[in-house]
Every structure is written in C-alpha cells, then in structure tokens.
Design goal:
mRNA processing, ATP-binding, EC 3.6.4.13, Helicase_C-like, alpha/beta, Rossmann fold, 503 residues, P-loop_NTPase, 6-stranded parallel sheet, 3 domains, binds adenosine-5'-triphosphate
Amino acid sequence: MAALPVREVQDLIVSTVKANRVTVVMAETGSGKTTQIPQILLEAGMAESGGIAVTQPRRVAAVSVARRVAEERRCSVGQEVGFAIRFEQRCSSETRILYLTDGMLMRECLVDDQLSKYAVIVLDEAHERTLNTDILFGVLKSLVQTREQPLHLVVTSATLDGDKFSSYFRGCPVLTIPGRCFPVQLSHLLEAAEQPYLQLAVDKALDLHLYEEAGDILVFLTGQAEIEQAVAEITSEIANMPEHDACPPAIIIPLYAALPPEQQARVFEPAPDGCRRIIVATNVAETSITVDGVVYVVDTGVVKQKAYDPHTGMETLTVTSISKVQAIQRSGRAGRTRPGKCFRLYTRADYDQRMPAETVPEILRTSLQAAVLHLKTLPLQVDVLHFDYMDAPKRGALEDALRHLYLLGALTREGAITPLGRLMAQLPWSLCWHAPCWLLLSWTAWALPSQWWPCSQPNPFSRGTEDPSRRKAWVIMFSSSASFRGGRPPTMPHPGAPTRGCL
Ligand SMILES: Nc1ncnc2c1ncn2[C@@H]1O[C@H](COP(=O)(O)OP(=O)(O)OP(=O)(O)O)[C@@H](O)[C@H]1O
C-alpha cells in the first residue's frame, strides 16, 4: 500500500512544528493525522525532553488508536505507546506517545499546571469543539507562551476553519495536506423521504446486505434505544428472509457510549469468513476511529445533541440535524482500508441549504451555569469573564451564570467555588434541579422525626441540634447517594485521577 498522505510530507510537518509553538494541520479523513503525526514527531526526536500527548474527544477512539499505533511500532500497549481514559490507563515510564481523552488532559492540570511531562501536545479532532477542548485551547495557548521548557501544540482535524484557528492562535501556520487514502463514492436521496429515518436506515442496511458486494456496513443513528430497535429489526428481517433470496450471513453489532468497553471492542474484531458485519452506531463512531472492513456508510443526517433552552433553564438531549462537518466525518469512516461508498439519507439540497456548516461549539449550546461551574472546579484559576474563549459567550450571560451560582451557594461572593459547588458539579442532574432538590432535602431533614433518620443518627437539621459538622456530613451522605445513582460511588477515587506513573 502507498504511504499515507501525512507520511509523504513528514519533513515539512517536523520543520513546521519545531519552528512554531502552535501548528494547525488539516488533512482528509484517514490520511494519517491521528496515527502518524505523533510517530513522525517521536522519530524526529521531539519526545526527548517530554512525552507526546494526543487528545481524543472519546474514550473508544483513545483506546483503539493507541492499540493501532502500538501494533505499528511493534510494542505492547502501555510500553512506548499508551492510553489514559476514565477508570483505565495503560502507560508506564517507557511511554512516549500517550492517547488520552481531553477530559483526562484537563485533569492532568490538577497536579501540574505546567504539564511538564509533555514536550508536544496534539489536540486531535479539534472541530468537535467540546467544552473541554475549548478550555484546553485557551489554557494551552497561554502555556506555550509562558512555559520555560518549550512546549509545542499541534491542532489537527480534517474539517476545521483554518483561518479562524490561525487567527485565534496568534497567526500560527496552517499546513493543508492534500490526498486521501481511498476514494469514497457519495450518494444522496433524490427526493425527501416520507418514512422516519430509523426505518429508512434499516431498509438501506438490508438492501446493501442483499445486493452489494462484500464489505461491512456502518449505520449512524442517534441513541441506544434506536440502535437496539434497529439491531432487533435487522436481525429479525435477515432471519425471516425466504431461502430463495440466498441471504448471506451477517453479524449485527451495536455501538454506543454506554456499552461496556468489552462490548464496544467487538467492533474491532474481524468478521468470520463469508460473513458481513452491520454496525449500528451513534456518533461515537463518527471521528478518529478506523473500523477495518467498513466499505459502506449509511448516514441518517441526525444526531442526539445537548441543547439548552434559556427560557426554561433546562438542558435537553434533542435529535437534531448534523452539520456538514459531521457529514464529512461520517463519510470518512469509509475509504480507510479500501474504496468505499457513503449513502446519505437526505437530499443534496438538504446538505447544501439546510445543514449548518459547522457544529455549534458545546460552550454555546450548553447551560452556561454548568459550563462556568465546570470551569470553577478546575485548579487553573480560570477567570471566566476574561478567559480567552475561541467563541466567547455573551458577557451578560456569563455574569448571569455567576450570579445564579452564587445564589445557589455554589460560589462565594468573590467567585471562588464552595464545597457545595464542588458537590453540585459531581451530581448527574441539570443545575435547574439543584435549588428544588436542596429545598426538599432541607425540608425533609427538618420535618422527619429523629427515629426515622438513617442509622438512628440524630437529625442534624432538627431544632436544637446545631452541630454543623453533622449537618455537613448528612448533606455529603445525601449527595453521595445521588451521585451513586449516576453510576459512580462517591468513595471511589475520582475517575479522572491523573496519569500517575506515565511518562
Ligand atoms: N485499526 C486499523 N486497522 C487498519 N488500518 C488502520 C487502522 N487504524 C488506522 N489505519 C490506517 O491508517 C490510516 C490513517 O488513520 P488515522 O486515524 O491516522 O487517520 P486520520 O487522518 O487521523 O483520520 P480522521 O481524520 O478520520 O481521524 C487509515 O486510513 C487506515 O488506512
């Protein structure tokens, strides 16, 4: 196989990264940004004074890419190449290239705000514009200027606005690398469909399975319930095909973030001979990952995304149209190990006229109170009003968020986070539920007869019992049980414990 496009220009990449504190690299999906750039920089001796960290917006990508690069470098994961995600890290003092989620890199700042373990940080899939990535942009932009020991930042994506990124990063160079691995043939619906997208996607997957040549199929849907329904329908349709249709065997594989890691890993296991895999996934499969064997992509054009309604103050997960950037990323899951085809279940006019060019950054579609609380939990002393945002929220809205958090007791008058604020940041509920919940809790605590209290503890809120430490302990106990319902017992170490022992 010919060299990947990124390898063709490796000398240019090395000289540009060495000569600049920040470099933006744009290259087609599958051209080798995630797997090759860190190796190129390692081979050029750029990991001598520190390691190379490569951030990924999703855990599944961090793990699968680390495995691939370790395979290419003929080492075990955890030696020269490692990964660090919530609850799991495979790295050691030998590790030079570390793939980690952007949340994990943020938590590294907890112990070392200079990130002194790293000589190079690659912010991959920068177009995703998660809250964490946007904060890292601001933090690292300042760190590359101020850190004594040189730090190089590389920002990569197939689909970002190079000019905007360059002007944000003080006019840094933008390397645009041409060429892709294999061609991907795109097709759109000729006219708007009348069926719901779920039905369309199931029908398309069955059609491809029956009539197209060998190759796995990747179908994009929006969430777990839909995926389970699609998996059940495809499985039952294939099982009920009349024998004369000579339907070949197929394995149907779901993929979504809430699946246990060992089930997610099934996506990377090759199909048995003569068998086709049909993978039904959320946008966890949209960027970064290579699923060897995928030839056909079915793009429904929708995604489930966090949205904030300023009128109700509620955050909701809403099914909404993807952006053009996401459509390009989805089609880019084909054409990585062989030529591919992408079937878009929407018209060309929809793509041209209805789809937004880019995904709205998370900071602009999330509750600002939650975002500000998140910023305040960081040890970075972020000044939320003057932080160097790439797309800054309105100042008035930031001030409202600060005021509201102060009224909830999450911040002090000076704007510092309180212990209650830290608890609130851990709870799995939308912030708009906190005030009623705390009120209900206080009322219950005040009203309950003392013998009903757990473990016959005296009621810390009852009249006459004024022991503040007991009161605090009970609040912590209550909050802990709430956070446990969110899936993580409070006594466990924080999932984002930094990568101790790595590099
Ligand atoms: N697990 C894998 N199995 C087989 N081939 C792989 C695997 N991972 C990567 N590759 C090969 O390496 C190429 C480069 O992958 P890489 O993830 O570095 O591309 P990329 O430019 O980062 O893509 P994207 O923009 O989609 O993240 C792929 O196109 C594919 O040919």
